[in-house]
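User: Study the chain.
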Amino acid sequence: MSGLLKKPLKLALIQLATGADKAANLSHARTRVLEASRAGASLIVLPECFNSPYGTAYFPTYAETLLPSPPTSSQSPTYHALSSLAAESKSYLLGGSIPEYVHATEKYHNTSLLFSPKGELLATHRKVHMFDIDIPGKIKFKESDVLSPGNKLTLVDIPPYGKIALAICYDIRFPELATLAARNGCFLLLYPGAFNLTTGALHWSLQARARAMDNQVFVGLCSPARDMEASYNAWGHSMIVDPNAEVLVEAGEGEEIVYADLSAERIEEVRKGIPIYGQRRFDVYPDINTGAVKFEE
């Protein structure tokens, strides 16, 4: 289990304020990404739906076409903005998520894009679990009215650091994804996510700390900034949690960038003290890592 993180890494989560103007959102994201880069971050994360408002009414309007890859600048201005920005900032850049439209299937997805410091697309992750909830008197939301789920686990090597896992928001409620990612050598789980004022208060920090504790890896949750004038109110409180479930840094409600330095020594220290990786009882229960795990759509 040692050597998951091969070199210290400075992680930045940008709790971005967004509005209805996509071009303005992309321009604003560029300003904050360059700020994070100047602060020394090597991996920079933007929030879920960072280029648009969040909501089923907005997904079709703001959706971009990513396939075949690479798309043209007219098909996906966000793809090209992220690619250029990753190269300009010389950082790994995770474009939290954008609404994607696939002409071949006539389906919409909620999709993350990860770019290298050279501006190359390394991976995409389509949100696997749809945010369909109904809490009486609090909130009702059904992403599946518009969106379709992705169908794979997304693990990516980011040299010279190691392997990370990408997921989106509601995906964090399904510990199987996190466990499979950690068991396959990831040192960091990243979840761009727009929890709301109900679910955020209940479970945002709890989920982040639980996934870190379960798997003894770092976890990053990146939210949009809270906007009480918007139709959907994001929770905020972007945070980075260490492998011992300790919160290293947490944002407030407004726009903010939070940073943390990740080290291999912390992973090794925690796993040595509580050595769960050598204590599982697959003679008592099944090993999910030996099942049919999908790494491709």
